[in-house]
Design goal:
Four Helix Bundle (Hemerythrin (Met), subunit A); mainly alpha; elongated
């Protein structure tokens, strides 16, 4: 059985990071590109959001005895197979996880245009996907 406290605390942390990011929603792309501190703040908070989402999905998969995922991608796939999320949400989760891996491991230079686009266009989508994931477990 899923520990509701774990889910609730992670969602609260996600909300805190989203609130921090909302302070930068009005920044122009030019200002964003010219301010490495803003870039760092945005990237860090996005990184933390995805880490919390991964904690949530892995926690649900393990506590609901859906399996022992070898990766966060696999945990997301299991949630899709169990009907917790649909294919569109699975695709969003996979992109989030991939983005987090790029930031966390710096496999390649981080594309600032993508970071800016996420900041401007995808924060509400993150919140929507998280709400769908936790609706049956919080």
């Amino acid at each position: 059985m899923v520990d509701k406290f774990v889910i609730t605390s992670r969602v609260e942390q996600i909300d805190e990071h989203l609130e921090k990011l909302s302070a930068y929603k009005g920044i122009s792309f030019k200002k964003f590109l010219n301010d490495p501190i803003v870039q760092d703040v945005v990237e860090y908070n996005l990184f933390q959001i995805v880490n919390h989402v991964i904690d949530i999905i892995e926690h649900i998969v393990v506590d609901e005895n859906y399996g022992l995922p070898a990766s966060s991608y696999e945990a997301a796939q299991i949630l899709s197979e169990k009907g917790t999320i649909n294919k569109k949400d699975l695709d969003i989760l996979k992109r989030m996880i991939g983005f987090r891996n790029v930031i966390g491991h710096e496999y390649i230079n981080i594309n600032k245009e993508i970071v800016y686009k996420i900041l401007m266009d995808n924060l509400s989508g993150i919140k929507t996907v998280v709400a769908k994931i936790v609706q049956d477990f919080s």
